[in-house]
Design goal:
Layout (H helix, E strand, L loop, with lengths): L6 H14 L3 E6 L8 E6 L5 E9 L2 E6 L8 H14 L4 E6 L10 E2 L1
Pfam families: DUF1491 (PF07372)
InterPro entries: DUF1491 (IPR009964)
Organism: Azospirillum isscasi
Length: about 110
């Protein structure tokens, strides 16, 4: 049995926790409310972005660097996200505005 929270509850809990710390998170695209995967668009507020994609390895949550190790411009980040949403219409897209580039979700970034 899969005992993970439905995606919509998991995402909303993280948005509220970040908000309590003064960090803005916005849902840019809602996916499947129960089992949609998540893409994070990290906005460093300096016109640079990173995109992290939720992956599971051996049932552990991790984040893959969708746009590479270095920050990219917004057009590049948005193009990557558009390709992913065409491939997986159930995906959620969350923008995180954090000058330090933190993602605020559990799981290591690889």
């Amino acid at each position: 049995m899969d005992d993970r929270l439905p995606t919509h509850l998991w995402v909303m809990a993280h948005i509220r926790a970040a908000d309590a710390e003064g960090v803005t998170m916005m849902v840019l695209r809602k996916g499947d409310p129960s089992r949609g995967t998540v893409i994070l668009k990290l906005n460093r507020l300096d016109r640079t972005f990173s995109v992290l994609v939720q992956v599971r390895e051996e049932e552990r949550l991790r984040w893959s660097r969708g746009t590479g190790a270095e920050p990219v411009d917004e057009a590049t980040a948005d193009a990557y996200i558009a390709r992913q949403t065409r491939y997986d219409p159930d995906v959620w897209v969350i923008e995180v505005e954090d000058r330090k580039g933190r993602h605020w979700f559990e799981g290591e970034v690889r």
